[in-house]
Amino acid sequence: MRTGEFFESSRKIVQDFLNSVIAIDDNLFFEKKHQASSIMDVDDGFDIIVEEDSGLGQSVNTQSVSRREQGAPINHPLDYQDLSLAFADYGINCCAFRPDIESLESIESAADKIKKIAKRTDITILDWSMDDKYGVQAGTLAKLSINKILQDDKLQNGRLRLIVIYTGEPNPLDIAENIRQDISSLDIKAIRNGGSIVFQCPDLEFCQITIIEKKVEAKDLRDEVIALFTELTIGLLSNATLSAIGEVRDKTHHILHSFNKRLDPAYLSHVIGLLSSPQVREKSHEIAFDYATDLISEELKSNLQISHSIKRNLGLERLKEWVDCINPDKLVDFFEIKVGDCSEVGISSERLKKLLSYTTDEELVATLTSVPVIMKSDQKTLENFSKRKIQLKLKSATYLSHEALSAIECKRRDLLSLKTNSPLPTIKQGTIVIEGRRYYICMQPLCDSVRIEKETAFIFLEIKSVNGNQSFTHVLRDAEGNFIKFSIKPGSKGVRIFKLKPDTKTNTVKAINDDCDFKIKYEKDDGQVGSLVWLGELKSNVAQAIANKLAEQISRVGLDTNEWLRRH
């Protein structure tokens, strides 16, 4: 497990973020005095207990320990009181669930219940052996529950997920391999890394299953689980995001106090005012909905922008701590930096920290031009550094982090963000479609994309998809999670008109789901019907910036002037 200043600060962020943990064990109990015979009346050496209780149930006797050495499992019943108190020390709610054959008659129904419980928890802790009463092999319920959880996550396009398997078995690596093989039967690419299982598919990219041995102290289990979650999330932007979500959680009741029920008459007055206007009457409720969501989102945004914890987690000292944390072996070429067309250069942690914290031009030039040289020393070093593209990556890293961050900045919706029951996409300003090999972005003003009663001409701009090292301006992801790079250069020559038919219920143009392709029908000049395929939608401010540039190009004025005068 990693240590260091950045890890410890990340761990503190995780402690503040975590809200709910669920522990699932068939031997769960609450009372201090636990009757061992209520679990299983078998003379196996585990029924003899020692009076001292220091954590998760009773301590086993020396005979049990000797049997552990011979390959027998530790059988600590889970003391929910101790575990909940341990998590309560950090303000984390720990819930518990005991699969009971009397209320859940089949193992299938027990797994379904576990899936539902795990849906909204931050961490799920599963006991490996909770199958005795169902008469099946140890691990059956845990594996079935995991499979159901993963399948549900895939349907929801994935999420951050930590599942901890808690076992007294002497062979945790064998259990990890057993789980990996079981998951692989679902056509999910699972990889075992020691006692952990990770996934090579976009929907489960940030999901991890880890097998840990049973602990005597409840606090030991708590600390290991929090450390595992920290390892899963540790990073600059991820820490800032966790802080932001934690901030919203902490201020939830304050925000609810601001948007209290006494505002309802004022909101309804707004709706009635919209209804009074014939121009917007038909879509008044949608407009009111947008008004409400804008109010709520701006309130959340204003709270985050003044958050001291978020600023602290992205401050200079934290950036330096990240540099040291990510390069624990202090490799001198761990970070690779490329400026413009210059060659890629491997640099050390100390060099990168100097780049992050220089205060004078002289310091910057010295950092750029020292060996190994990032940029050659000349009169234009500073000017070129300020104008050229700067790209930093980790040595041997394959993840396209720059493209991923750009996609987050650009997209409002894409094919990966469409869930099974999501509303069908609506065609409006910012929508990107493809026809054959040609890509287009919709430039139709938002006000002209609603209240459509008949076939209407929509304005589109042809855009170029680029590959390799060609320059690009915007990024989206396709259905497989691959990045599509676009070079969008607005101009009158790229304008294209498509005649689209509205949906009769919503009076907007909607895509139709045709075997996982979201198609938009249009009428060609020869009267034939063509189809565009929906790829995604840019954020409104991004799309508006493109529309503004297009308007500038179209509104240019050309004058015939005296050439002698023009060239003066």
User: Mean pLDDT across all residues, rounded?
Assistant: 87
Largest sheet: 7 strands, mixed
What is the CATH C-level name of the largest domain? Alpha Beta
Assigned CATH superfamily of the largest domain: Response regulator
CATH topology of the largest domain: Rossmann fold
Structural class by secondary-structure content: alpha+beta
The main sheet orders its strands as 2-1-3-4-7-6-5
Helix % is 25-40%
Distance linking N and C termini: 70 Å
Q: How many structural domains in the coordinates?
A: 4
Basic shape: globular
Could you explain the architecture of this structure?
The structure is a single chain. A hairpin with a 2-residue loop joins strand 18 and strand 19 (517-523). This protein has 19 helices and 20 strands. Helix content is 38%, strand content 19%. The strands form three sheets. It has a seven-stranded mixed sheet with strand order 2-1-3-4-7-6-5, with helices on both faces. A six-stranded antiparallel β-barrel has the order 12-13-14-17-19-20. It is α+β, with helices and mostly antiparallel strands. The chain has four domains: 5-31 and 77-234, Rossmann fold; 243-313, no CATH class; 327-399, no CATH class; 417-554, no CATH class.
Secondary-structure map:
Blueprint: H1 5-17, E1 20-24, H2 62-69, H3 80-88, E2 93-97, H4 107-118, E3 123-127, H5 140-155, E4 161-167, H6 172-184, E5 190-193, E6 196-199, E7 207-213, H7 218-233, H8 236-250, H9 252-258, H10 264-275, H11 284-305, H12 308-313, H13 316-326, E8 335-339, E9 345-347, H14 349-357, H15 361-369, H16 381-387, E10 390-394, H17 401-410, E11 411-414, E12 431-435, E13 438-442, E14 456-466, E15 474-477, E16 483-487, E17 495-500, E18 512-514, E19 517-523, E20 529-538, H18 540-554, H19 563-566
